Amino acid sequence: MPHQDENDCDKQQHLIPIEKALDLLLSNALTVTETETVDLINAGGRILANNVGSTLQVPPLDNSAMDGYAVRSSDFSGAEKISLPITQRICAGEVGTELAPHSVARIFTGAPIPKGADAVIMQERCEVEGDNIITSGPISTGTNIRKAGEDIDIGDIVLKKGDIFRPQDMGLAASVGIHQPTVYRRLRVGIFFTGDELQEPDTPLQAGKIYNSNRYTLRGLLANLNCEIIDLGIVGDTLKATRNAMSEAAEKADLVMTSGGVSVGEEDHVRIALEELGQLEMWRINMKPGKPLAFGRIGNTPFLGMPGNPVSVFATFCIFARPFILKKQGANHTQANSFMLPAAFDWHKKGGRCEYLRAKMERDTRGQTTLSLYPHQGSGVLTSTSWANGLVIIPSNTRINQGDLIEFIPFSELNVY
Ligand code: AMP
Ligand code: MG
Q1: How are strands ordered across the β-sheet holding 279-283?
Q2: 211 has pLDDT over 70
Q3: Phi/psi at 30 (5° precision)
Q4: In a mutational test of the pocket of ligand 1, which residue from 259, 267, 270 has the highest number of ligand atoms less than 8 Å from its CB?
Q5: Residues 6+ away with beta carbon under 8 Å from 207
Q6: Is the CB of 372 under 6 A from ligand 1?
Q7: Rounded Cα distance, 38 and 35, in Å
C-alpha cells in the first residue's frame, strides 16, 4: 500500500491543504436564486430548481408486454390443447371491450389489457386456425402483463431539486407529462487571460509569443458545465489593464475566472488588482500543479485566479472550479466520484505537495484495469491532458509501488469529454 514519509513538510506549511481550500470555496458558493422554465427538449445539462412529482401512473393502464393473445387464465386449467375464438383485436393506443369467457383478444405490445383478461399468451405459443387460436395452459394470472403504475405511482418524486438533467431524466420527465421544467438560470462566468506573450491561434505566431491555449481549454470546460460565458479575451500585463478587466467582468458576471499573473513575479498583477478592488481570501494551495490558485471577491462577485500554466488551469478547474460552479448552479452533487485502482508504475519522488497526475486507465494484457502515467508531468505539458483519461491523486509525501491501489478520477466524472 502507499505510505507517507513522516519527515518534513515544513516547506509546505504556508500552503493551504486541499480539503481546507475546497471547504472554504464551497462555503462561499451561494446558489443563484433566479429560476426559469425551459422547454424540456432544451433542458439537457440544466439543474432542476424543484422536485418533479408525478400526477399519473406509468404505465397508465395494465398493458401487454408481448404480441400475443389476452386471455382469462381460468379458461386454461390443464395442459391440454384448447381452441378459443378471437373476438377482438387491440392495438397499442386503443382500449378494448370486456373479454367474454372462453374467448381471447388479439393484442399487441403496449396495448391495454381488456377488462376480464388477466394474462397474455405470447403469439409464438399459439396456432391460428381461421378465427380461433389453439394453445394450451396452464397460465398464471399476470403473465406477460405490465401493471399500471409499476414504474411510477401517483405522487412519486421522480426527479429532485438539484438534479442535473441527463438524457434519461429528460425522458423520465416526459413520461410524467412535464414539458417545461423549472431550472436554475445559467451561471454567467466572466473570463480573461493575462499575459503579454499571448496570441490567438488565428494568425502566425510572432517571436516571443505563445498561443492562448488556456482560453480554449477553459471555454470548453465551462461549456460542459452549461455556463454562460463572458469572454474578455487577452489582457496585457499591467496593473491598470488587469484592474479594468476585473471590474468589468465582476459587474457582468456571477463569477470571474482568469489565468496567469497570480504568482509572485513583477509581471503578476492579478492578486494585487484583486486586493485593490476587493479581497483576497485564499492563495497558494498544497497541490501540484496549481499551487498559485487565488480565490477572493470583487464586491459580491467571487473570483478565481487560476495559474497560467495550461495543465494547472485544467487541474485547478477540475478540482476547485468545477465543484464551486456546480454548487453555485444549485447542483446536489458537486464532488466527482473517484476509484481505487492498481498503479502500473512506481512513484518515489519526494514532493511535499499533493500531486494530480495525468493518467490513463486501461486494461493490461492480463485483463486487469491499471493506471499508467504520462511520462512528462510538467505543468506546461498540455499533451499529458490530451493523452490521459483521468487524474491520479497522490497525497503529499507518499511513495507508490507498482500494484498499490491509488485514487483515480476519470475525466468523465469531471465533465471532461
Ligand atoms: P504566469 O502565471 O502568468 O506566470 O504564467 C505561467 C506560465 O503559463 C507561463 O509560461 C505563461 O506563458 C503560461 N501561460 C499563461 N497564460 C497562458 C495562456 N492563456 N495560454 C497558454 N499558456 C499560458
Ligand atoms: Mg503571466
Answers
A1: 228-235, 188-194, 255-259, 301-306, 294-298, 279-283
A2: yes
A3: -90, 135
A4: 259
A5: none
A6: no
A7: 10
Pocket test for ligand 1, best of 196, 211, 214, 272 (most atoms within 8 A of CB): 214
pLDDT per position as a tens digit, 393-403: 999 999 999 99
Rounded to the nearest whole angstrom, what is the distance from the C-alpha of residue 309 to the centroid of ligand 2? 9
- CA of residue 197 to ligand 2 center, whole Å: 8
- Return the residue matching grid coordinates 429560476: 35
Say which ligand is closest to the CA of 213. 1
Say what the pLDDT of residue 13 is: 61
Ligand nearest to the CA of 216: 1
CA distance 173 to 157: 10
**pTM of model > 0.90:** yes
Asked whether the beta carbons of 55 and 154 are under 8 A apart, the reply is yes
Name the one residue in this structure whose C-alpha cell is 490521459: 388
CA 242 to chain centre: 33
pLDDT tens digits for range 162-180: 999 999 999 999 999 999 9
Is 260's C-beta closer than 6 angstroms to any atom of ligand 1?
A: yes
Q: Whose CA is nearest to atom 23 of ligand 1?
A: 308
Burial class (CB in 10 A: 0-12, 13-18, 19+), 227: buried
User: What confidence tens digit (pLDDT) does each residue in 264-308 have?
Assistant: 999 999 999 999 999 999 999 999 999 999 999 999 999 999 999
Ligand 2 center to 272 CA (angstroms): 13
Give CA–CA dist 196/66, Å, rounded. Answer: 68
pLDDT at residue 34 in the model: 98
| pLDDT > 70? residue 86 | yes
Q: Is the CB of 310 under 6 A from ligand 1?
A: yes
Q: How many angstroms separate the alpha carbon of residue 193 from the centre of ligand 2?
A: 9
pLDDT classification of 361: cutoffs 50, 70, 90:
very high
